[in-house]
Design a protein that fits this description.
Blueprint lengths: L1 H14 L45 H10 L2 E2 L3 E6 L2 E6 L1 E3 L2 E8 L2 E8 L4 E2 L2 E2 L7 E4 L11 E6 L2 E7 L1 E4 L2 E8 L2 E8 L2 E2 L2 E2 L2
Antiparallel strand pairs: 1-2, 2-3, 4-5, 5-6, 7-8, 9-10, 10-11, 12-13, 13-14, 15-16
């Protein structure tokens, strides 16, 4: 029960816009185990303006689109949504020198694994610039398109980061800047690693 209360408090702090440092402590000890799940998104009844005059099936097309978008929410080091039909909160975690991380794609949780050339710690690849070159698909820093930035030595990818939502109201846009990966926080409505609307 205490774990559920701690999770709910951390989630409310995130939604209130509190600094990330206040919500970094997790009950799972950073091991990436599934935490208690958040309740599924429930759209309001009636039509989009809330007056109860829907189209007869209880949801308008706008509400159906909103529900699909809200089925998966990204945060700085975890996502809330369904992975293989199981609703939950999924934290990024290290597995030896590999990173298992989660993101949202088409309203569902997507699990990915990447090798970390300089090691993995704290649910992220260790960052380094020694003899490495930064390559990015986000050279234009387009917050409306999810991109990937990499640190490479020769043909070996040492580190890779993908644009992601730090919260539903903030995007972390990664790009190359003077040979290193730069993270820029962009305030916007964020879904699946890009600004929307």
């Amino acid at each position: 029960m205490r774990a559920l209360v701690a999770f709910a408090a951390a989630f409310l702090l995130l939604m209130a816009g509190c600094p990330q440092e206040l919500v970094e402590e997790r009950e799972d000890g950073g091991n990436g185990q599934q935490a208690p799940s958040a309740p599924p998104y429930q759209p309001p009844s009636g039509d989009a303006d809330g007056n109860g005059n829907g189209n007869g099936d209880g949801e308008t097309p706008l509400e159906e689109e909103e529900q699909q978008i809200e089925d998966c929410l990204e945060y700085s080091n975890y996502v809330i949504g369904k992975l293989h039909g199981v609703q939950g909160t999924y934290f990024n975690k290290c597995d030896g020198s590999s990173l298992e991380y989660y993101s949202c794609k088409y309203g569902e949780v997507e699990k990915k694994t990447q090798r970390c050339g300089w090691g993995c710690g704290g649910g992220a690849c260790v960052h380094n610039t020694d003899n490495a070159l930064c390559v990015s698909s986000s050279e234009s820093n387009d917050p409306y398109s999810r991109g990937i930035s990499k640190m490479v030595i020769g043909t070996t990818v040492m580190e890779e980061v993908e644009d992601r939502c730090a919260s539903p109201d903030e995007l972390w846009e990664y790009s190359c800047y003077y040979g290193d990966i730069r993270k820029e926080a962009v305030k916007c409505a964020c879904r699946e690693g890009e600004c929307v609307g």
